[in-house]
Write a structure and sequence with these properties.
Elements lengths: L2 H11 L4 H8 L3 H9 L7 H10 L4 H4 L18 E7 L14 E8 L9 E5 L14 E6 L7 E7 L5 E7 L3 E5 L8 E4 L6 E11 L3
Parallel strand pairs: 1-3
Antiparallel strand pairs: 1-2, 3-4, 4-9, 5-6, 5-9, 6-7, 7-8
Helix pairs in contact: 1-3, 2-3
Length: 209
Amino acid sequence: MTPGERIRQLRKERGMTQEELGRLLGIQKAAVNKYETGRVQNIKRATLIKLAAILETTPEDLIGWKQDMPANIEAVLPQEMVSVPIVGRVAGGVSCVAENDIIGYETVIRSEISPREEYAFLRVQGDSMYPIFMEGDLVLIRVQPSVDSGSYAVVTIDGEDGVIKRVVYGSDYIELQSVNPMYPPRRFEGSDVQRIRVFGLVKQIKRKF
């Protein structure tokens, strides 16, 4: 059985359509079809790990490495992975991720997060945080109402959609700093600090090439 046939078999056993599998992987239905028909044979390692987790199997099982698996390849078992929601937007005053804001899921290794905390992924838009954060990056956020001064965090201003900034606290102000020098810092003083709400702390960046 080819890897594509194995993917199709496991997908159908779990009652999933190609479109549903693609949504969980963050790719189009057409890409899933290419995997299953063998038109794409070299699946990226990160995609293979995520695919195996969704289909409740192992990467080596998907590609037929049941025996004599190369010593330099380390398999990540499905039970070692956990799915974290990707949110389309973060609104002011949100203390948890709303179901209607979830646009997909991204897998992370279970040991990288705490089961007692809430996490979400947010996709970077714009270039204000370039080159540390690039447009299209997925940023893992630990949801929490405050962060230490100097931390990168997702914050909202006046209840608008959340943005990633470096948060710096002063004696009577909060300053939101961009990485890109083309964007000057924004300082909120006195009562204006109430306009700022912290959604969560940036924990990890995922960049796909």
